[in-house]
Design a protein that fits this description.
By secondary structure, the protein is α+β, with helices and mostly antiparallel strands. It contains three helices and four strands, in the order βααβββα. The chain has a four-stranded mixed sheet with strand order 1-4-3-2, covered by helices on one side. The longest helix is centred in the last third of the chain and has 12 residues, at 135-146. 5% of the residues are buried. The model has no long low-confidence stretch (mean pLDDT 82).
Length: 147
Amino acid sequence: MANSGSEMAERWPLPERTVLAVDYPGYVVNADRAIQTIGGSKKLARDVVENVGMPIELRYRYKDPTSHPIKGEIISNQNLLLVKVTRRVKKTSGSSPSATKPPAITSAKVVAVIDKSVRFRKLADFQYIVPKTDPLAQITDALRDIN
């Protein structure tokens, strides 16, 4: 039973650009530091392209060799990256305060296709930060500096 009054939606082509999405388990303030905690952009790109099957390791303290990583995995999917822009028109100084709010202008655009995602669904391990004055930490630092 097709409704004779309905129309087909307008078709839009999908963009050629593909991107990788990372479901980062934390609040990202500095994107470069967040990428560094995953191993850096080069290592992440290599792992995604080669699809080695090894888990992606997230280390919140990436400079600390004693920190335990959170294991993540690469998942294939077909999602869209949508960018929504909302612009509000500023009130003019001559308008009355009882005037209605000007309408917001909203637009959305599909920017890329997300073909793979990195997800960190495993539980994080409890960690103990070793103080710098601890003999084990001093030995570890000394051995690391020999390289």
